[in-house]
Amino acid sequence: MIGIVNYGAGNIFSLTAALDRIGVEHGMINTKEDFDKYSHIIIPGVGHAGAAMKKLQDTGLVDTILSLKKPVLGICVGMQLMTAFSEEGDADMLDIFPVRTLHFGKRIQAKVPHMGWNSIRIENNSPLFKDIPDNSYFYFVHSYYIERDEATVAATCTYDTVSFAAAFQRDNFFGVQFHPEKSGKLGEQLLLNFSRF
Amino acid sequence: MLAKRIIPCLDVKDGRTVKGVNFVDLRDAGDPVELAWQYSQQGADELVFLDITATHEKRKTTIDLVKAVARQVNIPFTIGGGINEMRDAETLLNSGADKISINSAAVRNPQLIDDLAKAFGTQFVVVAVDTRLVDGKNYVHLRGGRDKTDIETENWIKEAESRGAGEILLTSMDHDGTKNGFDNGLLKKIK
């Protein structure tokens, strides 16, 4: 059963609907004790990364998240929270992955946000992408991207001249920059893979 | 590589999908949620729903449609129709919509584009523009094409973009439902 960290950053209707479609039970995490009820944890998030980090800190759940041994999946801004630092709000993040979240704006010519279906290259045989073909398309909406680190990258995406981490994994921590809950059948497959990890 | 998107656009009237020609002679085309699911199975990249009868009183019908679509469909979608203020947009976002489309409200109050983009990001804001050729020039039309304005389409699109519209949903009333293809002349000018 998947627990969704409820810290007030963005709507989660689409995520819970996707979990319902694949038949995975879920509930909300509001307190430290709630973590014990679930085998898997998702940290969602949309909007401003700096503001989202502040909200997460206000819940008092950060230390518990850092100590988790259960599988944890960050989605979009939820993934960015797992990095060391974000240029959005120049804010320190959870530092689970020693990489930075950077702004597309000054670095590329193409339109920002990066929005739409983009193909990814699967790396390091990540279990997240079991039964998902290489170069599959996923749905992205973001203005900030995460640096690619050879050791942790699980999938790479290229937009304009930048190749960034579309997914990463270290031990029990996973993150995806795209929205699996909006990425059709393959997105649902990824959520199913995570729930079975 | 970023893919080109194919986006079916469904006009919804009183909870049913309708199709017309040049914005009139509407006929029933089925249940929007069922159609949405079919389109998604056939490979559509996104969907757009325009509730052409949405009013303040019927707000709940639109919200119910958004929730039903979000439950059943696994691709992004836009909802439009009767969105006049920030609160309308926020309710639809929380009901599962990925983007909102505004049309008449943006022309009446262009600041709404800035406000929505600032609060929810430009990716959330689609400005729909209904255009018709009058004496050789394209003009913006409102209220489902019933009212011609004096605003030239090209100028309005530039303004909407500069205010924070992430995307423009451009409908040529002259081509709508005629099966004669897109208005490529106009598209070329705007692009």
UniProtKB/TrEMBL annotation, chain A:
<feature type="active site" description="Nucleophile">
    <location>
        <position position="76"/>
    </location>
</feature>
<dbReference type="InterPro" id="IPR010139">
    <property type="entry name" value="Imidazole-glycPsynth_HisH"/>
</dbReference>
<dbReference type="InterPro" id="IPR029062">
    <property type="entry name" value="Class_I_gatase-like"/>
</dbReference>
<protein>
    <recommendedName>
        <fullName>Imidazole glycerol phosphate synthase subunit HisH</fullName>
        <ecNumber>4.3.2.10</ecNumber>
        <ecNumber>3.5.1.2</ecNumber>
    </recommendedName>
</protein>
<comment type="pathway">
    <text>Amino-acid biosynthesis; L-histidine biosynthesis; L-histidine from 5-phospho-alpha-D-ribose 1-diphosphate: step 5/9.</text>
</comment>
<feature type="active site">
    <location>
        <position position="179"/>
    </location>
</feature>
<feature type="active site">
    <location>
        <position position="181"/>
    </location>
</feature>
<keyword id="KW-0315">Glutamine amidotransferase</keyword>
<keyword id="KW-0028">Amino-acid biosynthesis</keyword>
<keyword id="KW-0378">Hydrolase</keyword>
<keyword id="KW-0963">Cytoplasm</keyword>
<comment type="subunit">
    <text>Heterodimer of HisH and HisF.</text>
</comment>
<feature type="domain" description="Glutamine amidotransferase">
    <location>
        <begin position="5"/>
        <end position="192"/>
    </location>
</feature>
<keyword id="KW-0368">Histidine biosynthesis</keyword>
<dbReference type="Pfam" id="PF00117">
    <property type="entry name" value="GATase"/>
</dbReference>
<keyword id="KW-0456">Lyase</keyword>
<comment type="function">
    <text>IGPS catalyzes the conversion of PRFAR and glutamine to IGP, AICAR and glutamate. The HisH subunit catalyzes the hydrolysis of glutamine to glutamate and ammonia as part of the synthesis of IGP and AICAR. The resulting ammonia molecule is channeled to the active site of HisF.</text>
</comment>
<dbReference type="InterPro" id="IPR017926">
    <property type="entry name" value="GATASE"/>
</dbReference>
